[in-house]
Task: inverse folding
């Protein structure tokens, strides 16, 4: 079955550490996105990529970095510069020009300990 | 700037009741898309519907129906005869209609629906 796989489901980070969240899709979608969700809030865009080797900052990119070396993969690194990283992170993909909305992964819950 | 408002933070209903989730949007675009997503406790957002701004016909899919009114910038979602499995957070979203969502895909804050047995 086609879909998006995010791993791990739960992640714990010590202060000062960088961590990388994985996002892989086998839908052959062009575009991929990273969102952050905080309790009681909507989704906020961190980064997005519409083509391999290219990506754009979203509304809250500070303290995060991404890469898009392969069409199917869009990992997100939460750096030590992100002061409040505890949140639920969702990855999504979309076929440009497609008739439907995003396809989402099941998310990664990151907690700073 | 685009904005989506979901004024209802949380709603609780008893099973079999009908419930309407409100969504009001703001955009300067004349062509845009509106969406509803469901987020069950598992966390994954599930696509429910996409509506083009030129199509104001109401849509019905089983127990779900959507009322799009451009005059009031609203895209409300009704669940008829609610069931416990409908318990989730529901998000309304807005995007420009260029087939290139990028930064212009805006989510509302979500409405948490609890359906009690």
Result:
């Amino acid at each position: 079955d086609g879909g998006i796989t995010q791993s791990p489901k739960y992640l714990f980070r010590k202060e000062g550490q960088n961590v990388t969240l994985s996002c892989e899709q086998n839908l052959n979608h062009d575009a991929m996105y990273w969102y952050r969700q905080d309790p009681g809030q909507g989704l906020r865009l961190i980064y997005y990529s519409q083509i391999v080797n290219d990506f754009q900052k979203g509304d809250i990119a500070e303290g995060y970095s991404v890469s898009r070396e392969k069409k199917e993969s869009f990992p997100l690194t939460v750096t030590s510069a992100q002061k409040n990283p505890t949140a639920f992170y969702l990855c999504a993909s979309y076929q440009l020009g497609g008739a439907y909305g995003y396809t989402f992964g099941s998310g990664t819950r990151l907690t700073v300990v | 700037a685009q904005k989506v408002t979901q004024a209802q933070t949380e709603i609780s209903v008893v099973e079999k009741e009908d419930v309407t989730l409100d969504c009001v949007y703001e955009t300067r675009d004349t062509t845009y898309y509106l969406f509803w997503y469901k987020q069950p406790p598992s966390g994954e957002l599930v696509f429910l519907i996409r509506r083009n701004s030129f199509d104001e016909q109401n849509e019905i899919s089983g127990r779900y129906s959507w009322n799009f009114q451009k005059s009031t910038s609203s895209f409300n979602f009704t669940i008829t005869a609610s069931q416990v499995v409908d318990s989730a957070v529901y998000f309304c979203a807005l995007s420009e209609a260029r087939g290139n969502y990028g930064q212009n895909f805006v989510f509302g804050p979500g409405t948490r629906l609890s359906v009690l047995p």
